[in-house]
Amino acid sequence: MRKIMKRVLGRSFSSSCFKRSVQSSFTRLKSLTDHRRRRFSEDLNEVVSLLQEDLQELALSRCEQMIKHQNLVDAYGLIEGYLNLLIERIHLLGRERECPDELKEAVSSVIFAASRWKDFTELGDVKSIFTSQFGKEFTARAVELRNNNRVNQSIIQKLSAKKPDTKSKMNLLKLIASDKGIVVKLNEEGKLSKSIQIRKRGREKNKVVTATTSSYQTRNSSRRPKR
To answer: Some GO term, biological process aspect, for this entry: which one (predicted)?
Structure first.
């Protein structure tokens, strides 16, 4: 790959080098996508188990990781689509030092994603090719999300470091619960409703009273004199 990059980082655009870098990215994207889908499936099974055990607040917290997995799968799919588009329009990429307007969204989105996925070296190679062809200023505009960056807003949202909000987690939890015929007892803040909390505390209190009474009766019975 280093030899390829040395050739690419010259002034001329190499279609063959670009195609090889993109093909390597496709292979890595498939591996990453499969990994995230497995993680999503594992977390789904865990959420279902927690719902069946009536641990709904804990199940809700697990939904956060599921959303992150799905966001990455969606982002991988978008980037794969952009790379396919760029391969189809590869004849436009090497014509000018200015990125063609019809490809700016695709190129900018790929550059942005590569900057966020530091360990995705294959996509990093594609980013380096674009930097060589269209300049550091063009790359910086996409990476730093400057004005007129042309990065797809969905990509920005999917790769955001911001945690999923409670509403998103609740929607996912309700969807999973509905599929399993389970009623969600949480309110919009992700907490048990007051009436359920009161009943729950009442049951717990009764358990404590019953256990205490039983323990007292056992001790009292053992102290009775034998006749």
So the answer is: protein transport
Question: Residue-wise pLDDT tens for the chain (227 aa)?
Answer: 544 544 444 457 889 999 999 999 999 999 999 999 999 999 999 999 999 999 999 999 999 999 999 999 999 999 999 999 999 999 999 888 899 999 999 999 999 999 999 999 999 999 999 999 999 999 999 999 999 999 999 999 999 999 999 999 999 999 999 999 999 998 877 777 654 444 454 455 555 445 545 555 555 555 555 54
Instruction: Write down the architecture of domain 2-175 according to CATH.
Output: Up-down Bundle (1.20)
Q: Is the pTM of this model over 0.85?
A: no
Structural domain spans, the chain:
2-175, 193-223
- Per DSSP, the residues of 65-99 read HHHHHHHHHHHHHHHHHHHHHHHHTHHHHTT-SSP
The tokens describing 139, both together, are 């790359």
The Cβ of residue 22 has, within 10 Å, a number of other Cβ atoms equal to 21
Residues 6+ apart with CB under 8 A from 57: 186, 190, 191, 192
